[in-house]
Design a protein that fits this description.
This protein is of the alpha/beta class. It is built from 3 helices and 8 strands; from the N terminus they run ββββββααβαβ. The chain is elongated, with a radius of gyration of 20 Å. The N and C termini lie far apart (about 50 Å).
């Protein structure tokens, strides 16, 4: 059993509008108790000082495109019509390793911003493959981010 005690963080609980200083007892990766600051707990449990941290529920990204993580900045000045017209040329014929790396980068960016779950419309062009989906799913699984994956609908005439 792995336990940790997060001490003194400014906790924004889901049902409250104002954060308050609390200690958080975590067991096996799950919050087991919110405690008053300084509450005595078993001395063998490792402690983390969070007095300089705001702790809030994980964010959910309900619309992301992980296949674009490695091309950010390439088309940042394009309007939507240009992006739709050129998107296929930016994202086609990628190796599964490239797809996995792009998903890993996307996961890292979201985790660093407080996201704990996402809905990823991950495109593989010209045709989706089980191996591509597995590469992307493995990348997200290794990151710890909870993700629902879906191929985008073929609304743009892409193959």
């Amino acid at each position: 059993m792995s336990e940790v005690l997060i001490r003194g963080g400014l906790v924004l609980a889901h049902a409250k509008h104002q954060p308050e200083r609390l200690d958080i007892y975590v067991e096996n990766g799950r919050i087991k108790a919110l405690l008053a600051p300084g509450t005595p707990v078993n001395e063998t449990i490792p402690e983390f000082d969070a007095t300089q941290c705001l702790i809030h529920p994980g964010l959910i990204n309900a619309h992301t495109h992980g296949h674009g993580a490695l091309t950010k900045g390439v088309a940042d000045r394009w309007n939507l019509e240009q992006l739709i017209a050129m998107g296929a040329s930016l994202n086609q014929n990628r190796s599964h390793e490239f797809m996995q790396l792009s998903a890993q980068l996307n996961a890292a960016e979201m985790l660093l911003k407080g996201c704990t779950a996402a809905f990823d419309l991950y495109g593989e062009l010209p045709t989706p493959s089980p191996e591509g989906l597995e590469a992307v799913a493995d990348a997200y699984s290794q990151s710890g981010l909870r993700v629902a994956l879906r191929q985008p609908l073929n609304l743009l005439g892409w193959a």
